[in-house]
Batch of 2 targets.
Target 1
Amino acid sequence: MADPSSSSGAGAGPSIRRVTLPPRSEYRFELEPHERLSIRLLPNAGDAEIFGAELVGSTQERWYPFGDEAKAAVSTWNGAQIDIAGSATTEYLADEPSPTYTSYSNLHLYLEKARIQARQALRQDPKLLTALVSAGSDPSYIAPRATDEDPGAAGGNHGGSSAAAASNASSTSAYRPEGQGPRVMVLGPESAGKTSLIKFLSNYALRSPVVASLGKGEAGKVAESLRKGGDGIVYPDAIDDETEESKKKRKLEESQSEITGWWPVVVNLDPSEGASPLPCCLSALPLSPLPLASLPSPSPAFPLGTSTPTTGAIPPGPSTAHGVAPLSLWLGKESVRENERHFRRVVDWLVEGVERRLARDFRSRMSGLLIDTPGVITADARSRYAFIQHCVKAFKVDTIVILGHEKLNIEMTRMFGSGAAPSRVPGTDGIPLPRVNVIKLPKSGGVVDLDDTYKQRLRALQVRNYFYGGSAAPSSKSGGGGGGDGSTTGGTGLPQAALPGHADPLGGLPSLSPFSTTIPFDLLEVYRVGQEAMAPSSALPIGAQRTVTQTQLVKLDPTNSAADQSSLLNSVLALVQPPRGGGGAGQPDSIQEPDDDEILGAPILGFVHVADIDTVRKKITVLSPMAGRLPSKTAILGSLDWHDV
Ligand SMILES: Nc1ncnc2c1ncn2[C@@H]1O[C@H](COP(=O)(O)OP(=O)(O)OP(=O)(O)O)[C@@H](O)[C@H]1O
């Protein structure tokens, strides 16, 4: 690999290299297992950023640590001098121009314009704000189910009400187009740099010099709300009913600083490894430029960083607690194609949560959505990209960005460019597709093709981090710890903890002491979605109907079924919010007779790992990240499992 122009030493310690980056260049590194790296920008030595997150150059030792096989690039607009401690097997200065400086930045400017237009619309029409709030808090709204044509598909035992709701779903949707910022969906093949582009766009939005406010007098209230542990949402009527004292404080705050930066919502529809908070989840993460206006990339185990607003659905430790709760739903699979009907249903629920939020939170509304998607594969063309069509319609996407894929670009332009083509996809027939801007961008030459064993390691690391928290790099050659068993940096012989910035766990994730709980079989109710191995309809005898549909929940029976016992053991279960408050102490949640659909669409409250099953005592032992009662007794099984070695 080409070596970046560097000089060893240059006034720093022996293992620290000083690298000079020319303007508009990109220094890329790919860490192997057990390798760690620290980077700092020298004070007054230019500008540098990693996937759009600015490195702060200061006279204090401000190092940015990387590990867990992170792969990333430091880019600079005007040139920079950086110090690098540790080494990576692969590191080089790109010798081709990076799209960051051209098309990616132009895309950001295009989105910036759309956000400012949305802000203008909201500022001009105060009545719209009140209308939006009431739409967002309309209790009669039920997530649309437009694509589920199978009458019993989502209903389960009590599906009638949902089916009825589906028919008039469009009229009850919380969506209103007015004052709506850009809704961007990034598409491309696997390893095209989709997540990296989402991160870049998020960071640029967070760093924007624009103030995302409804006008004078509101910024201070948001700051106050966040300081008090609130969600930072300012309701329109709240501006009028404040006390004299809080008014004074607010005025003072406003004169001191206005919060700049957008508050976009990152929607992750890719449930494979690297998903936040864990694989098998779909989530929506509302970002805020407070308290930290960037998503760092210390480890691929938390692709959107571990800063306050981005820790995932369940704060695994006190210091990562966040004011803005992201919405995470359980798909239970890493592939969206395995059970598309279920995927579409979960997407509908996610949309509902997002729309409700955007109706109440004007900053997120004007900032828009950034939607990450799973890599498109050849087989998707056969179904005319059914899952993409569904997501575009459900999230009311207005801009599709295609990363380096000519055929996909042409097909998406054909499909959405005219806005007139009626869909021929089963379940979406007859409904014209919306008109969407399709933009093709080049793939960055730095993107790394990730192999299956890397993906497996990443998956295990994410689960481990959830239960055990982060762990610092081992401090000596013989030291253990979760940072890996190799304890020296690649080639330098320096203990990893001696690298600046590596004394604390990556991303500042605290260490946790997980806790074991034993629960009777009949108290922890575990469901599975659909039948495990479902024969295609064509394989059934003529006239026969499936007894279990793809989105019906099946309750596991560990008492009588050895198969259920073995699928539970070592699995990671999602604990979801029990519908209607659940059963209370000592009672199973099913006492409330929840609808299947209510459980499928319930937000995740936490995860447990099934460590043991005692068939004699009829008890199940689960591991949870913190002591105390489990947040719910309703669990859903998926394909995520983990061996605590
Ligand atoms: N310019 C770059 N320099 C170095 N590494 C990069 C660069 N861009 C992306 N990467 C790395 O390449 C890997 C794949 O990128 P990314 O996850 O963004 O792709 P993706 O299209 O989202 O992949 P998937 O289809 O698996 O979701 C990541 O580890 C990312 O950090």
Target 2
Amino acid sequence: MSEDKQYTMEEVSKHDKVDDLWMVINQKVYDVTSFVNDHPGGGDYLIQNAGKEATNEFLDVGHSQKAVDMLKDYYIGVCTDSKPLQNPLSSNPIPISTESPVIKSTESSSNNNNNEDKNKDVTTTIALVGGIVVAVASIAFFTFAKIKK
Ligand code: HEM
């Protein structure tokens, strides 16, 4: 990763034209000049963000994983002075690719806690059944007590 080229926002901001269009997404610099005419959302969106930090704009659209995967095709280096995401993700050129890892980690953590979860379930069931038995017994007791009177 040390071989990655480093750019500043000042440098990126010079590439703000339709025929020379860079943008920064999650501290990574993308040269999307060749993509302007192919962007499924329309070239205007890219032009509006030319030479800029466009992480929020990219995320706000809710781009698909396919779109996220496409970023690596346009990656040219890292931006040294743009803000990182609040929740920093992987350090590879693909910036917002946590979808599957996040799902995987929840799956594996739920697997790890499987026995614990089962124990919790049993405890809850016992507590519930116990509660019902006590409630029914008290109702029966008071009903009988009333009848006796
Ligand atoms: C620079 C890297 C970008 C790539 C590789 C990219 C790629 C894509 C792709 C593949 C789609 C089709 C829908 C999908 O698969 O999500 C799309 C749609 C779209 N993109 Fe981008 N995009 C980029 C940047 C941006 C930026 C900076 C904006 C700014 C707002 C933007 C706005 C949109 C919009 C509005 C759509 C249409 C969404 C829809 O139809 O629901 N894109 N983009």
